[in-house]
Hints:
The complex is a heterodimer. By secondary structure, chain A is an all-alpha fold. Chain A contains eleven helices and two strands, in the order H-H-H-E-E-H-H-H-H-H-H-H-H. Chain A has helices at residues 2-29, 46-57, 62-74, 88-124, 131-142, 145-154, 159-183, 186-193, 198-235, 241-250, 254-282; strands spanning 80-81, 86-87. Chain B is mainly alpha-helical. In chain B, helix 1 (11-29) crosses helix 12 (254-270), helix 3 packs antiparallel against helix 9 and helix 5 (122-132) crosses helix 6 (139-153). At the A-B interface, helix 1, helix 5, helix 6, helix 7 and helix 9 of A face helix 4, helix 5, helix 9 and helix 12 of B.
Amino acid sequence: MPAAIFRQLRRILLTALLGGLLGATLVRLGPGFGVDERELDNRLSQESRQAIQAEHARDSNIAMFYVRYLSGLIHGDLGFSRSLNRPVSQLLKERLPLTLGSLAYGVLGGVSIGLALALLTACWRVPGSDIAPAFLAGACLALPAAVIALLFLWMNVPGRWAIALVVFPHVYRYSKNLLVATYQSPHVLAAQAKGLSNSRILFAHVFAPAAPQLAALVGISVSLAFGASIPIEVISDAPGVGQLAWKAAMDRDLPLLVNITVLVALMTLVANSLADLALAAWRPDVSRETA
Amino acid sequence: MKLRLRLKPSRTAQNIALVVLFLVALASLLAGFIAPSPYAEQFRDAISAPPSARFLLGTDDLGRDRFARLLYGTRVSLLLAPAAALLSTFLAALIGGLAGYLGGRWERYVTAGIDLFLSLPWLFLLLAARALLPLNTSPITSVAITFLLLGCLGWASPARIIRAGTRTLVNSDYLLQARASGISGARLFWRHLLPNLRPMLLAQFWISVPVFILSEANLGLLGLGVSEPLPSWGAMLRELENYTAVLQNPWMLAPVALLVIVVGCLQVALRTEDQIPC
């Protein structure tokens, strides 16, 4: 277990480093880098303008720029949003709780609905029982998240449930196939022949072997939900991180957008790592890599 | 008791889906002949007109024929999503194939890179890359940028599958024998490995197409896709933001209906039941 925790931490740190470097490169290469509109202010003296130029000249050395950027990241300084004229960390602090709340609802709701329907389909074993859920999942998969958000907005349903509807079809389809395939495996047939109860077969012989894939599915759901949060928050006018990312893209506020992307990537990784660690704690004999 | 659940769509359903897709593609390709007017032509005497014999789906706020725009928009989405899928599959074959073929630390580095790429949520990455490029571009350039971005950013998921497939092939007997015969590495890769990866590449290509169609629709609805006056499904969906107008003119939902039909038919035709697009 400690080795697994160490492995996950190493993975997260490496991603943070690479993501940070990638983010710094994007910010530096982005349009408008090094341009300061304060220089156009006629009221500023020559010395003030030179001071501003000297401030930007420090960033012309790319190595120093990376070091400063990463050191800022470590100290929680995520830069300054040009379009909203506020520190990025402050903006995120305000908006993150709403997005995290919506994600929690969305992922929990989507995974629960998807798993419940998959389980019903796999256990019920009535021909045609999968038609209604399969049709619903197919329809949801064929709709862009933004259109689902619009439908929910029209029906006055909170946007977080739209996230659940984006996550549910992926969970349903994958887990249905997984559970049906596991039910058909020889060890389950042998357990049925021995007369084991349905619940024991389900928990001990179906869920247990499928655990690595199901854990991976929860991790992927977090990533899916984050992606869906952008159009959903934009359409339902929810002041979350997704809407902030969209505003940053429209205003071409690259420091803000890149830092949000790196942060979201880290949060996705943490969610995946937690799923891995939970699996390692529950089933030490298997790991997600074997899935 | 043996399970009788169908895991895949039936052959009949697949055939119907293929016919529908063919008809939609044909109609969009023949848009120049079928559409009663050019997609950008404005009829100022018929602003927001209801459906009629003259305008089959009515007109939009600028007096443009919705039916013509839907046909041309379908052409943009249906032609360029496969183009983006082709690019992403090519990149995936190159990166995933080489990683699986070379093995060792190269494979480890590429796998770590793929994991990193996959941990970045798709739409956030698209927004970041799109914001790097000018937003006030010409319509044709915006189409190229949108689908180039989709193609360049969508390689990671197929690359992981292709790397695993290549690894299996590398350890196969016929490749061992080819290597023992002294065939050079490049020839081995291009002549013996890639042709055997073709079914996998084809599957990854077709799986990417609906994903890219939906991504374009999301980007378009957010105002970051194809720019006006060129129509695309995403751009046409922006009209739906006006709820009152949709209630009064339900035919405004025609692009959504067509999108659902096409993506649904692609899912059925390609049997993408157990795939998880990331």
